[in-house]
Amino acid sequence: MDAGATVLKPAAKSMWGYGGVVQAPDGTIWKVATSAKKDTGLATREIDEIVLLLGVEDVKASKQFYVGRGLTVARSFGGKHAEFASGESSPVKLALYKRRGLAKDLGVPADGTGSHCIVLGSTVGSFTDPDGFAWEAAPSLISAPSTASAVS
Fold first, then answer.
1. Bigger pLDDT: 60 vs 36
2. What separation, in Å, do the N-terminal and C-terminal C-alpha atoms of the chain show?
């Protein structure tokens, strides 16, 4: 691919829609998918939603951990999958999936040695979840006074 990604699973139709899996040069695995099963128009570069899907050992335990951090469960399928509600203006969702099932879906080994560090803008502070994913608080943004001036 032009940006250096490696295709792990070529884009194809599935029971859930259409998608594929790539691995970025830094090792991050991206599954790009749509739930649309038919081509309904021209392709755009617009993204409606991003789901950060974490592969976890125990979905129920991890779900309770995040609920304890203030997240609200939007959907849950027993010990297999959990999805949290996102804020009204946020297109980003957090979801949990059994590690082995996610690895199988992505075409990678379940005992992978990839990064467990996630840096997202958050107001809840830094913490490490039950699966070793380390979350860091977003640094405060310091706004500089405007230096723009009008010229007549």
1. 60
2. 50
Rounded distance between C-alpha atoms, residue 16 and residue 33, angstroms? 9
Ordered structural domains, the chain, with CATH: 6-37+48-114 (3.10.180)
Show the tokens assigned to 19. 């998608």
Identify whether the C-beta of residue 91 lies closer than 8 Å to the C-beta of residue 47: yes
How far apart CA 58 and CA 17 sit, in angstroms, is 27
Q: What is the dihedral of CA 101, 106, 108, 109, to 10 degrees?
A: -10
Q: Which of 118, 126, 110 is nearest to 94 (CA)?
A: 118
Q: What is the largest CA-CA distance in the chain?
A: 66
pLDDT by residue (tens digit) across 36-54?
Answer: 767 677 777 777 778 888 8
The token pair at 122 is 């958050």
